[in-house]
Amino acid sequence: MSDNELGTFLRTWREAVTPAEAGLPTGPRRRTPGLRRAELATLAGVSVEYLTRLEQGRDRNPSAQVLGALADALSLSLTDRMLLRRLTKEADGGDPLVCAAAPSLGRAARPTVRAVLDRLEPTPALVINWIGDVLAHTAGYERLAGPLGMLDDERPNLLRYLFTDERARSAYRDWDRVADDLVARLRHGVPLRDPYLAELADELTVTAGAAFTDRFADLTMAPRPTGSQHIEHPEAGSLRLLQETLALPDEGQRLVIHLPADDATAAALDRLNGRRPGALRAVAMGETG
């Protein structure tokens, strides 16, 4: 195996992407059908010299921002973005799963919090930690989120799903608004030097690109006290939900509860949960920010 797999990966993709695919004019005098280094460097916003060092293996520690920009310029798929990130971590000798000397990140909800969830059935409700990992949820939430693919991963994460799963764009009619709010909560609710935040942000910078990084860099965005979502559900149809979030500060966790915003949604959730229509009552929309 090559000792410069990262450089080989970048060079191979650069040579495979045509100027037309990158939105560039195709000139008559080209020695290769792919992109020139200068073209890729311009598209990614880096210098030709730096791109050369990366391809030649003389620099093996590019930032997540550089990787995200290169991935965007090459129009990499999610699978290839993840491979690019892994190759970079391996080239740098790092382990992307280790956050040394960091305070413990909660991976489970307390028994008393789980008891609260039990009493909320069949309302869609879940407990998440400070970076959006889903730690526990009601059966009502599983019936809502499961068909959307939100719980497919062994360790589901709301931000990873929203920004990297193609199904999320179809599921959320107001995807931009939901993305704004999730990133604002992440940005304002966690210390910037938190290693788990840094690891997730680096991952999404590479795998999601500008859709994530532009929001993460915007310090003016603030989370709304009460959120709203418009979901197209494959089984229940169009759902309008209000979202109430309750902090569990001792664990760095949050309890998130989804409530029907109109009578049609209340009836649809009742049918989804196998209940008689009318069991759930809609909450007045009011002002959601």
List the helices and strands and how they pair.
Elements: H1 5-16, H2 37-44, H3 48-56, H4 64-73, H5 78-91, H6 111-120, E1 125-129, E2 134-137, H7 139-145, H8 158-164, H9 166-171, H10 175-189, H11 195-207, H12 210-216, E3 226-233, E4 237-248, E5 253-260, H13 263-272
Antiparallel strand pairs: 1-2, 1-5, 3-4, 4-5
Helix pairs in contact: 1-3, 1-5, 2-3, 2-4, 4-5, 4-11, 8-10
Descriptive keywords:
about 290 residues; alpha+beta; five-stranded antiparallel beta sheet; 5 strands
Protein architecture, described:
This protein has 289 residues and is α+β, with helices and mostly antiparallel strands. It has helices spanning 5-16, 37-44, 48-56, 64-73, 78-91, 111-120, 139-145, 158-164, 166-171, 175-189, 195-207, 210-216, 263-272; strands at residues 125-129, 134-137, 226-233, 237-248, 253-260. It has a 5-stranded antiparallel beta sheet, sandwiched between helices. A hairpin with a 3-residue loop joins strand 3 and strand 4. Mean pLDDT is 86; it is low at 95-102.
Estimate what percentage of residues fall within beta strands: 5-15%
* Unreliable stretches: 95-102
Structural class comes to: alpha+beta
Radius of gyration (Å): 22 Å
> How would you sum up the global shape?
elongated
Mean pLDDT: 86
Strand order of the largest sheet: 2-1-5-4-3
The biggest beta sheet reads: 5 strands, antiparallel
Distance between the terminal alpha carbons, to the nearest Å? Answer: 54 Å
In total, the number of strands is: 5
Number of helices: 13
